[in-house]
Amino acid sequence: MDILTLLPFIVLIGAMFLMTRSAKKKQAAAAQMRSDMQPGTGVRTIGGMYATVKEVHDDTVLLEVAPGVHAIYAKNSIGAVLDDAEYNRIVHGDDEELDADGTVVPDDASSLTGESGADKADVAKIDLGKDESADDAGTEDAAAKDVKDANGDGKADGEPEAK
Questions:
Q1: What Cα–Cα distance (Å) separates residue 22 from each residue in 13, 15, 26, 27, 84?
Q2: Long-range CB contacts (within 8 A, 24+) of 55-64
Q3: What CA dihedral angle connects 89, 93, 99 and 101, to 10 degrees?
Q4: Is 55 left (phi over 0), alpha (psi -120 to 50) or beta?
Q5: What pTM value is reported for the model?
Q6: For the chain, how are helix, strand and coil distributed in percent, rounded to 5?
Q7: Which residue of 19, 50, 85, 128 lies most exposed, with the fewest beta carbons within 10 A?
Q8: HEC assignment per residue over 12-52
Q9: 3-state DSSP assignment of residue 81
Q10: What is the enclosing helix (H) or strand (E) of 53?
Q11: Is 149 left (phi over 0), alpha (psi -120 to 50) or beta?
């Protein structure tokens, strides 16, 4: 057999090997993460629930989902083991990473434009009033309606006849 006929099969087998190898690495990393759990650690389940580990058993974990509320979960249902700072930030809203200079984001964008009060006064105000040309168009529509009424047949000059 020619090597060119075997080449697609070799490439396919190589791609399958690489995909299974990366999947096995991910599974091993997840198993290692779950085995490193200890009581007092914050975790996130695969369902997105945050809880604190109370007890670790062979295949199960006792989680405290709220103060005084405990639930037993399978170890495989633990999606991530969180460090204390991240768990407190997510669950309790503790923001230890705020800037020391006290940067404050304003409620509106007016302070971000860099214009002073004098510059704002120089900006021309936009007139949101009714436009004069719109009034002219309104009178043309009224004139067309008057023509329809004058003809008595409900149609203006130049309109096709209704069937």
A1: 14, 11, 6, 9, 29
A2: 61/37
A3: -160
A4: beta
A5: 0.47
A6: 45, 20, 35
A7: 128
A8: HHHHHHHHHHHHHHHHHHHHHHHHCCCCCCEEEECCCCEEE
A9: strand
A10: strand 50-56
A11: alpha
What tokens does 37 get?
A: 């759990």
Give pLDDT tens digits for 111-152: 666 655 555 555 567 777 777 665 555 555 555 555 555 555
The kind and range of the H/E element at 80 are strand 78-82
Question: 63, 44, 45: which is closest to 54 by C-alpha?
Answer: 63
Residue entry with tokens 């043309």: 140
Span 74-98, pLDDT tens digits? 998 998 898 888 888 888 887 765 5
Amino acid at 69: V
Tell me the residue length of the chain.
163
Structure tokens at 4: 């060119």
Residue with tokens 């629930």: 49
Please tell me the distance from the alpha carbon of residue 38 to that of residue 61, in angstroms, as a whole number.
Answer: 10
